[in-house]
User: Which sequence fits this backbone?
């Protein structure tokens, strides 16, 4: 159950685009900052394969400048 | 259904991101985050104030079974409107450190051994009775904290002042806000700010005086920054002795030499008068002028005494006094350019701008702390920018209930829940409510905090009970006071939640129920009383500090004064305590309302909170149509003539650096709780010394080198940080005090403000050497 959180920085002027792009991706929840060009992204996939696919999708987002990981958990043993 | 492990991890992921964002972007807000209870299973969310600073943020703690598993900001709390800082988001993890104290311990044959808590309580009562019999009532003492809940402080005061009859009651808030109290009392005759946090939403200019709000009051700083973003015309000016995160996020940073804020404040007033920016109508109708004693000393010797004597003066005398403080003269003293002084004056003087000044430890931990509080009030009074939305001289507190418990309950040697021990009517009221003979209450104060620890060292005090604080990290000139506590015929009781350097010197350790493991109330910086219910069971034998005192009081024979049941004692204590504050000036909300709301501001009159005091438009105690400073007999606030006087100890040829001490964002005070929170400890694992790059180069020191910091009192060795989060000017070093591995207070000086008796942790002379 890989769960990660990130600080997502949009390309200039593309915060709303990035927010839309992230919310359109499966396994993603995005929380925009009210007063900074910044979005918190939480991803929650069910297995490492899905996680790899999601990582690839994130890298392809043109509205995204960069992601900084703030938390990571990839324990496969938990099935709660 | 309980919270799943998956939900717990997801919550941790969100909290980590929020914490990182807060650190990287001071002021960032995420109020749009959904109220996420539904996605995390069957967590029950309970309201509580945060316990990790004086802001009083409302939290919602998520509970699953008997465990707190999540935290989010309380959107119903007007303080933080759903936002938290990094400490708040991780606050519940502080409950679960591996070394929580869960059993009472007693020293037997030189070793601490676990005992049933009833045995420890028996021993405490027995020792207190023996000590009083042998050495008199003033040989026993209690030392609490601004983290005491209101009931904790109330029962401590009732037992010691009302029943035993000693005024040996003090709290660590003496070390953090006593100068603010005396500042309020001397200028206005009543304690605590006239404004509230809503001022942030109205002010056009914020001037922070020696106050790193981005780290120490991050949620309030965020509100300021958010206002600047939203309203465009808002300015934040950082006026400080060292560059910090607050400086970086401000519109302008102005540095001054330590202690010279006194001169700059007077120079601002000089400029306001010179430019005729005075609000004459306000000054003529609401202000009087007074001068007090000068060359008032520093309190570094035992038995130091000082009493101010005020003399009424007129406008011309005030103008004459200010002639020593032209911007050009003050530039030479302070290092602040005359242009910057004039700029500051123009901000205060501009009649179109609403101005709020914020300060905290920089002004309070100051050997002229009372004076600098008075002087900032002088500025606001001269221009009439006070007691109205956005116009606010605002003294922030550092601890969650420094106001609620220490200032309002009066857990200081000279205080009672209403008024002071020296006042006969106040003693009579206390005796009536406490059901004790009025003769029990001694009219003479005994020892303020520094002098109390000196008395313990000398042997005038033989017994001390310490609750919710860690003086063996926080006392200045620490070695003397640690040696005093270790003396053979002293008996030290410590109630705490984790082992600390203070429990290391204890004869009895009582495990305390922490924060939401008991019911309580705090009072924050803006006169807001905040209730929380018991949310979790205490761990092991841990017992609420209030109940510990009740148990000991009963064992000493005071059952009549402490009659309450375990089920309702917090409500019963609240109902008794609030009798002290009945009336329009300080009426408190009823228990039932406090249970329902995320905090209520006093005065609470006819079902309404009071946001701005001394203004008849908002304050039911104010008479007439405009301002009414009813704390003084003539209903006028005082402009006080307070000069610049130098620090107790300044750098010289041998000890050639200033030492400045303080806090960091991630840790609460001495770190005894936050260092048990893995993410906070990882983010800030050790203390350090900040050195200016040019000083470091001159010393041959690079980042990470060890340096020795020595004063006339002691020395420590620690890692240097150059161009770190903060950056002191040349000739100054800064060390945070959160880390018990590096006890910087071995080095500091126990000089204090002669009026407030608050020590100055911001200024002493040290030398710095590469190891």
Assistant:
């Amino acid at each position: 159950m890989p769960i990660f959180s990130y600080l997502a920085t949009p390309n200039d002027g593309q915060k709303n685009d990035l927010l839309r792009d992230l919310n359109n991706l499966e396994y993603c929840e995005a929380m925009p900052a009210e007063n900074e060009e910044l979005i918190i992204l939480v991803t929650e996939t069910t297995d490492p394969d899905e996680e790899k696919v999601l990582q690839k999708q994130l890298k392809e987002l043109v509205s995204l400048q960069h992601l900084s990981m703030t938390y990571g958990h990839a324990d496969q043993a938990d099935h709660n | 259904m309980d919270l799943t492990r998956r939900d717990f991890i997801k919550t941790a992921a969100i909290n980590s991101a929020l914490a990182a964002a807060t650190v990287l972007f001071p002021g960032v807000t995420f109020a749009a985050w959904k109220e996420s209870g539904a996605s995390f299973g069957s967590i029950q969310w309970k309201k509580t104030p945060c316990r990790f600073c004086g802001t009083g943020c409302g939290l919602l703690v998520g509970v699953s079974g008997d465990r707190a598993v999540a935290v989010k900001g309380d959107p119903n709390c007007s303080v933080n409107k759903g936002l938290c800082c990094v400490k708040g988001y991780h606050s519940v993890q502080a409950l679960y450190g591996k070394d929580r104290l869960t059993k009472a311990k007693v020293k037997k044959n030189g070793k601490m051994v676990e005992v049933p808590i009833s045995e420890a309580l028996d021993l405490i009562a027995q020792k207190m009775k023996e000590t009083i019999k042998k050495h008199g009532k003033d040989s026993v003492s209690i030392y609490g904290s601004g983290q005491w809940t209101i009931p904790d402080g109330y029962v401590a005061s009732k037992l010691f002042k009302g029943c035993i009859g000693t005024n040996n009651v003090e709290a660590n808030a003496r070390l953090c806000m006593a100068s603010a109290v005396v500042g309020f009392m001397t200028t206005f005759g009543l304690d605590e700010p006239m404004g509230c946090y809503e001022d942030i939403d109205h002010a056009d200019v914020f001037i922070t005086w020696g106050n790193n709000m981005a780290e120490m009051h991050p949620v309030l700083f965020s509100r300021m920054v958010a206002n600047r973003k939203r309203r465009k015309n808002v300015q934040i000016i950082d006026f400080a002795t060292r560059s910090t995160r607050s400086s970086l996020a401000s519109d302008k940073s102005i540095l001054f030499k330590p202690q010279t804020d006194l001169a700059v404040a007077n120079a601002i007033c000089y400029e306001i008068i010179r430019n005729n920016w005075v609000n004459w109508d306000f000054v003529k109708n609401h202000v009087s002028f007074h001068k007090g004693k000068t060359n008032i000393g520093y309190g570094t010797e035992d038995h130091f005494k000082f009493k101010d004597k005020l003399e009424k003066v007129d406008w011309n005398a005030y103008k004459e006094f200010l002639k020593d403080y032209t911007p050009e003269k003050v530039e030479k003293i302070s290092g602040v350019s005359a242009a910057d002084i004039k700029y500051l004056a123009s901000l205060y003087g501009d009649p179109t701008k609403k101005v709020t000044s914020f300060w905290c430890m920089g002004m309070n931990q100051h050997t002229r702390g009372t004076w600098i509080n008075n002087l900032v009030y002088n500025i606001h009074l001269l221009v009439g920018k006070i007691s109205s939305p956005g116009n606010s001289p605002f003294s922030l507190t550092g601890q969650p209930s420094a106001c609620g418990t220490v200032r309002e309950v009066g857990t200081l040697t000279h205080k009672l829940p209403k008024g002071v021990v020296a006042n006969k009517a106040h003693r009579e009221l206390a005796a009536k409510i406490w059901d004790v003979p009025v003769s029990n209450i001694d009219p003479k104060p005994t020892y303020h905090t520094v002098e109390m620890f000196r008395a313990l060292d000398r042997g005038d005090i033989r017994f001390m009970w310490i609750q919710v604080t860690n003086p063996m990290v926080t006392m200045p000139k620490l070695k003397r006071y640690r040696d005093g506590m270790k003396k053979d015929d002293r008996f030290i009781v410590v109630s705490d939640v984790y082992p600390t350097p203070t429990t290391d010197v204890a004869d009895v350790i009582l495990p305390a129920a922490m924060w939401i493991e008991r019911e309580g109330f705090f009072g924050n910086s803006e006169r807001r009383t905040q209730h929380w219910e018991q949310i979790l069971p205490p761990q092991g034998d841990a017992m609420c500090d209030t109940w510990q005192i009740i148990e000991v009081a009963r064992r000493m024979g005071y059952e009549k004064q402490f009659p309450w049941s375990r089920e309702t004692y917090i409500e019963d204590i609240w109902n008794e305590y609030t009798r002290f504050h009945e009336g329009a000036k300080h009426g408190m909300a009823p228990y039932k309302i406090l249970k329902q709301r995320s905090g209520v501001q006093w005065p609470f009159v006819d079902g309404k909170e009071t946001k701005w005091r001394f203004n008849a438009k908002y304050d039911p105690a104010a008479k007439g149509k405009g301002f009414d400073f009813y704390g003084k007999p003539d209903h006028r606030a005082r402009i006080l003539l307070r000069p610049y006087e130098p620090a107790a100890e300044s750098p010289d040829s041998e000890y050639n650096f200033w030492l400045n001490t303080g806090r960091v964002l991630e840790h609460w005070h001495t770190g005894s709780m936050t260092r048990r929170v893995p993410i906070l400890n990882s983010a800030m694992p050790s203390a350090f010394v900040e050195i200016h790059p040019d000083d470091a180069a001159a010393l041959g020191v690079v980042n990470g080198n060890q340096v020795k910091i020595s004063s006339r009192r002691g020395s420590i060795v620690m890692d240097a940080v150059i161009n770190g989060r903060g950056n002191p000017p040349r000739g100054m070093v800064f060390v945070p005090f959160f880390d018990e591995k590096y006890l910087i207070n071995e080095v500091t000086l126990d000089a204090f403000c002669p009026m407030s008796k608050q020590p100055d942790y911001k200024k002493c002379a040290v030398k710095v050497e590469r190891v």
Notes: Confidence is low (pLDDT under 50) at residues 34-41 of chain B.
